């Protein structure tokens, strides 16, 4: 029986906007969070004395991470090499430079000949002799069209046709690997991809338009005892037989992962059988605070008391609030910053609700073809509060319509403009009139 630790999507160096600089180290606190999460995975591999570590890809957000971030990643994985734990590092989409053509950051481990380290940047089978016995790992890195197709083959094809061609090639190439397998020892497929049975996590946003989906039916072969997946940040089981699991990311990369549990997997794999245990990691908590202020008489007070109701200490906070245009000046952002000071970091996103989104008058529906003047007349008929002004408004509108558009005459007679300001009962209605 081979004891395996499966982790994935470390994205070291990502999500810096949710952190701050730690004055003691000079590092972004989110890098420290991600490093700590990775450290906990490696600690567990050592404590549990696993026979093998499988990394599902996407080590960094880009293929060219700054040296200090590569170092943070390397110094944790290096502990596995020191402890003689074989480790397979799979290449994900974020790890590939120029869509596969420029190599992958992880290949440096092969170049350096780190003992026991295997880099999975091609579709191939690796036989590994572990303390728990021999095992074979098929590595399936993120596929790009250049992996399995040549340029002339894809010329003039649509994205959909290219994807179909790529899937055909994958079927054939995977079949080739399967036929070479030793049927007497356990087999794991380690793949970085999107399957059709996956529920999307952050990757929906991270990989928009870049990828394609591999049907689970292509992967779910009897010869696999376990399918270790990377790419989707939400931990999930996507197939029961054979068992196929996305380990998910080890820390929250962005707010799309707010409600997801983070962790890694410990597995016992033997020929014909795999059992998995999900081990949660204490990832930093992300919390969205949403407030609708549009009906509040004192928006600042309402906002402050909404913040006060939340436990925000050391959390990554996102404050979303809706307000009317005329309430903007009532918000004191300095006081908001003070109220949120206990948070680890915060993003404040006000949203001004348009006053024009009120229901239209039925008489002014889209299918009614009216002249501007009769539309205005209809509007005024519905506004009793403006009845005293109606003749002047209509006259002014007539004047505007008759006016030479390139002339330099005043747009609204000054006396009438004054009337608007003094007599409009509500500011937003005045606003609406001006836009009419
Ligand atoms: Mn990915």
UniProtKB/TrEMBL annotation:
CDD domains: MPP_Mre11_N (cd00840). Keywords: DNA recombination, DNA replication, Endonuclease, Exonuclease, Hydrolase, Nuclease. It comes from the Bacteria. Residues 416-430 have a biased composition (Acidic residues). Coiled coil: none annotated. SbcCD cleaves DNA hairpin structures. These structures can inhibit DNA replication and are intermediates in certain DNA recombination reactions. The complex acts as a 3'->5' double strand exonuclease that can open hairpins. It also has a 5' single-strand endonuclease activity. This is Nuclease SbcCD subunit D.
């Amino acid at each position: 029986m081979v004891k395996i630790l499966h982790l994935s999507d470390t994205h070291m160096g990502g999500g810096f906007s949710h952190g701050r600089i730690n004055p003691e180290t000079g590092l972004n606190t989110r890098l420290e969070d991600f490093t700590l999460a990775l450290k906990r995975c490696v600690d567990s591999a050592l404590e549990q004395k696993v026979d093998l570590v499988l990394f599902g890809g996407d080590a960094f957000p880009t293929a060219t991470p700054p040296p200090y971030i590569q170092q943070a990643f390397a110094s944790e994985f290096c502990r596995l090499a020191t402890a003689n734990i074989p480790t397979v590092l799979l290449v994900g989409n974020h790890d590939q430079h120029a869509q596969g053509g420029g190599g992958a950051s992880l290949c440096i481990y092969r170049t350096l000949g780190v003992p026991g380290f295997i880099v999975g940047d091609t579709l191939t089978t690796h036989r590994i002799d572990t303390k728990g016995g021999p095992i074979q790992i098929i590595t399936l890195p993120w596929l790009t069209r250049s992996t399995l197709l040549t340029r002339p083959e894809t010329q003039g094809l649509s994205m959909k046709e290219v994807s179909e061609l790529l899937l055909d090639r994958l079927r054939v190439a995977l079949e080739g690997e399967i036929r070479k397998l030793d049927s007497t020892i356990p087999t794991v497929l380690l793949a970085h991809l999107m399957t059709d049975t996956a529920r999307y996590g952050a990757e929906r946003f991270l990989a928009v338009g870049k990828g394609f989906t591999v049907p689970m039916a292509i992967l779910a072969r009897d010869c696999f005892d376990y399918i270790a997946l990377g790419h989707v940040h939400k931990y999930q089981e996507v197939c029961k037989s054979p068992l196929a699991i996305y380990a998910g990311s080890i820390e929250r990369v962005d707010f799309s992962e707010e409600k997801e549990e983070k962790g890694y997997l410990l597995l016992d794999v033997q020929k014909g059988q795999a059992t998995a245990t999900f081990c949660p990691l204490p990832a930093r908590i992300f919390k969205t605070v949403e407030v609708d202020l549009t009906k509040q008489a004192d928006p600042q007070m309402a906002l402050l008391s909404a913040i006060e109701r939340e436990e925000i200490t050391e959390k990554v906070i996102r404050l979303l609030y809706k307000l009317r245009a005329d309430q903007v000046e009532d918000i004191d952002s300095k006081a908001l910053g003070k109220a949120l000071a206990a948070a680890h970091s915060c993003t404040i996103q006000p949203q001004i609700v348009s006053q024009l989104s009120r229901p239209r008058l039925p008489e002014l529906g889209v299918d009614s073809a009216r002249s501007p003047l009769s539309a205005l007349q209809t509007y005024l008929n519905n506004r009793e509060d403006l009845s005293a002004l109606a003749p002047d408004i209509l006259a002014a509108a007539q004047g505007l319509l008759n006016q030479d558009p390139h002339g330099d005459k005043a747009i609204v007679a000054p006396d009438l403009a004054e009337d608007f300001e003094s007599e409009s009962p509500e500011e937003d209605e005045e606003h609406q009139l001006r836009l009419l």
